[in-house]
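Lab notebook, bench 4. Still working through the backlog of constructs that have no structural model yet. Next entry is a single chain of 202 residues. Request: give me the structure tokens for it.
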Amino acid sequence: MQDLFGRVIASCDRALGIVENGLNLVAGALIFVLMLLGVAQIVMRTAFAAPIFGYIDIVEVAMVGFAVVSIAYVQRVGGHVRMELLVSRLKGRWLWAAELTSAGLAAFIVAVLIPYSYQHFERAFEFGDSTIDIELATWPAKLAVPLALTVLLVRLGVQMAGYLRLVLHPDLAPVAVPTIKDAAAQAAEEISLASGGRDDSR
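Model written out:
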């Protein structure tokens, strides 16, 4: 039977996951729209010699969305780039302690960045900062940064709680934390996803 602390962490993980999935969907939609816009730009420029006015400005503002909006989702699934030469050799309580330390350092850095990124947004909003060509307001993109970092900070807090639980009780099943997979397991998972989950062994 799962412990009470684990159930609380799992509940927080599920609730936060809904927000992260939504933000990841927004980031994916932005990428899709920019792909369509890029195709339209190429067609307009080559076929009609009439490129989309302000195309670079639009990309400049929109790229902030898919660069940071889904950052908490990536942290949740463990999709970020990390050095695992040392961590992958650790086991049990030592592994979870190392992960807890790493998440704590990341949370500290993110907590420092949030107020500065918000001040950057405030300046852009107060001064009416805009792009050069079409004078597109930049403050929505700059507001996305502290908001995305705040969600990331909450995610790191949930993961720190999950790591702390495992440090105290290494025999429990991991909850709300990404687990390290060796190369063989990761390759098998990618093959399974590429094949659509079909069983080709028959």
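Notes after review: Helices lie at 4-47, 55-68, 71-77, 92-127, 139-168, 183-194. The chain has a mean pLDDT of 88. Flag for follow-up if needed.
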